Amino acid sequence: MDFKQIMDNIKKENGEVPKPIELLGKLDEEFVVSHMTDKQRVHAKKAIPEKYKALIMLSAAIALDSQACILNNTKLAKKNGATVEEIMEVFALAKFSKGATVISSSAAAFEWLNSNK
Hints:
Elements: H1 3-14, H2 19-27, H3 29-44, H4 50-64, H5 67-79, H6 84-105, H7 107-115
């Protein structure tokens, strides 16, 4: 697929091209083609149903604070059969996961504080 076909497919599937992809495409069309080709390859695998792939990607997007991906993967999850309750549970799980990284990433500071009470 070429860049124009990929951008047309993204718009058809999402109703719009996410701003980061649009901006990236203006700078490097081949990067977008490569990224989307890899995404299609992953989605072509069938071990994990599409609904769960979308929920997993949503969780990662939330934890990584990618606003465009949060919205797009929420839409994708709903399109692939996820209920609002399932999607909201993903938000709760991602919140916990992200919060846990704050504690984990702070271990050196906690260690220092404990030794310098």
